Amino acid sequence: MRNTIKLLFTYLFFSLLMPFRGFAQTDTIYYDIKWKITTKDHASYYRIATKQDDGKYKIEDHFLNGHLQMSGYSLSPRDEDDNGKTGYYIYYDSSGNKTSEGPYENNKRSGEWKFYYHGFLVSNPNLINDVGNGPAIYYDSTTHIKISEGSYINEKRSGQWTFYNSRTGTIRLTQTLKNGLLDGEAIYYDTLGNKRAQGLFKQGLLVGTWKYYYNGALVSEENYEKDTLNGPAVYYDSINHSKKSEGSHLNGKRIGLWTFYNTKNGKINVTTNYENGLQEGEAIAYDSLGKKIAEYSFKRGMRSGKWKLYVNGFLRSEQNFENGVLNGTSIFYDSSTNNKAAEGDYLNDEKTGIWKFYSPAAKKIVSTETYENGLLDGEAINYDSNGSILSHKYYSHGERNGSLKYYNNGEIVSELNFKNNALNGYAIYYDSANHNKRSEGLYKDDKKDSTWTFYDTKRKQIKVLENYQDGALDGEMIYFDTLMRKDFIKHYKHNVPDGSYTEYYNGFPVKECIYKDGWLNGKMIYYDSFAHTMNSEGEFKDDERSGTWNFYDVKTGNISSVKTYDGENPRMFYSIEYYPNGSKYYEGEYYEGKCIGTWKYYFQNGALAGETYYNDMGTKGKQVVYDSITRNIIAKGAFENDNREGIWQYYYPNGEKKFEENYKSGLLQGKYAWYDSLGYKRLEGKFENNSKTGTWKYFFDKTKDVWIKVAYSKDSLTGDLTTYYPDGNLKRK
């Protein structure tokens, strides 16, 4: 009622203002997602319907974003009035792209319609009363290339239809249809345009001769009746195009004689017969040279009777089949000698009874095996070329059970016992040369267990005793020398040294230590192998020496040296060496086998004899030497790269300078002076590269007066030798 009043008011208002102009009636209608009329709040679309002068309504449907969804003309502003669409309609998606367009007549689509995807044409069929009638063309939605074309009659495909490759546009299929069913010739093509298949349909079913192609070449010809293979068929090789096989079908199954060919030379490979699709009767197969490779037979499609296989015309096997499974005796022949290689029986496709295996060259049995239900069960024996037993074993249900013996030249080399396919029980091994016992012990589930004994096979005496648990060394191990004296005793835990270790020489201990988890940890003692007295003792920590180690004079028992190892750095230790009387000889620190820091040397009376400083690289630096009685310095100097360098000074025990030298890279270089014990200079000169050079002077005793002058060059006298009187006057030149 409210809308009616509003429309009336609008009509009166415009008729008063514009009496000489026509006007149009406009309605806005809201629809939900299912195109049911709803309120604005629940709408997905809205419609603007404008009445025209001819009484029709111009319809414009919109998405809520304002984009046009459809435009056309209708006899009613609302679809539910069923007054019908008429005229040309265009539909759009929410992005504004056309989705379809075409004419309506009496509310039905009639005439040419066009359908779009993302704005691109995908089909334009002809419709009559909403039903396909007439030509239709379809396009690929991505490439926009034509993919099919043909005609419809009452919504069913009829007449010639052509289908195209959506990428290249080339024909991929042509077919004839009637009432929507394939009826007539159909041709299929590959992507290169080569024919792939050609044949006839009748009421949607394959009939007559069909030909199939590969790369344009014929690969098969088959005959059909009502979609089922019936009649002759020929197949060709896809590469050389020669005939591959030929025969006939009946009701979709092979029937009668079929022949298979070698495609390289055209010769027959196999001829065989079929009944109801199953192989039946005898068949023969040939190789490429026409030589027989198999003779066999089938019964109801299953292998039956004797089967023989050949290689190069020679028999390789003879086997018997019943109902498709092996039953009876089988014989196999060697490919080189053509002699028998193996023979035995099958029962229901499984080996049974005793099987024999032969050396084809010697024509002798090399092994026999006993089977039951396809599994080794019972005795199995291997033989050497002389017929002597190599091994003798037993099986149960495919697993080794019982004794197993190995032989060499008829002599036993091992005796083993198995249970459930694993070594279990006592085992003995023998030397293959002298046949004496080599080792013996117990196995448990394929692993050594308990005590194992190893022998010196030449002396027939025990060499080693080892204890095992679960296959790993666990417990005491003892080695013996050739006189049956202990060589060493070691303890293991789970294959890793753990516990005490004692090493012997001629029956006396020479080493005692402790292992923990495979590492030396604890006290270590060494003994002299001849005097049998202690040689050294100390501690190990994680396989490295640690703490204080004492070393002894094996004759006197006195300590000969003490080494103290750094617990943080086992490569560094402090060493003190002693004289036989027990006094210190020298002391200092080692790092990686080199002296470092200050080293001190002593006389047997305990007095300091000297000090040498080493840098961290183990090379010498400063050095001082002392007198054993006065304890005064008697020499001092420095080293560089282990060579004397710079000034070296020497003194008498009373402290007076004795002489002074200069060095460079270990060679005497520069001034030299020598003094007597009272401090008077007695000689001076110069060195160059370790040789006397220049003028050398000799002085009178207890004076500063020159006595002799002499010239040197490279350690040789050159020039004059001059002598003087004590008063300085020339004596002789």
Question: What is the tally of helical segments?
Answer: 1
First-residue to last-residue Cα separation: 161 Å
Nearest-angstrom radius of gyration?
Answer: 58 Å
Spans where pLDDT lies below 50 across 5 or more residues? 1-23
Helical coverage, percent range: under 10%
Question: Strand count, sense and closure of the main sheet?
Answer: 58 strands, antiparallel
- Portion in beta strands: over 45%
Structural class: mainly beta
Tally of extended strands? 70
General shape = extended
**Mean pLDDT level:** 91
Summarize the structure.
With 733 residues, the protein is mostly beta strands. It is extended.
Write the layout of secondary structure elements.
Blueprint: H1 2-17, E1 26-31, E2 45-51, E3 57-63, E4 68-74, E5 85-92, E6 98-105, E7 108-109, E8 111-112, E9 114-117, E10 120-123, E11 126-128, E12 131-132, E13 134-139, E14 146-153, E15 156-164, E16 171-178, E17 181-189, E18 195-202, E19 205-214, E20 217-225, E21 228-229, E22 231-236, E23 243-250, E24 253-261, E25 268-275, E26 278-279, E27 281-286, E28 292-299, E29 302-303, E30 305-311, E31 314-322, E32 325-326, E33 328-333, E34 340-347, E35 350-359, E36 364-372, E37 375-383, E38 389-396, E39 399-408, E40 411-419, E41 422-423, E42 425-430, E43 437-444, E44 447-456, E45 461-469, E46 472-473, E47 475-480, E48 486-493, E49 496-505, E50 508-516, E51 519-520, E52 522-527, E53 534-541, E54 544-552, E55 559-565, E56 572-578, E57 584-591, E58 594-602, E59 608-614, E60 620-626, E61 633-640, E62 643-651, E63 657-664, E64 667-668, E65 670-675, E66 681-688, E67 691-699, E68 706-713, E69 716-724, E70 730-732
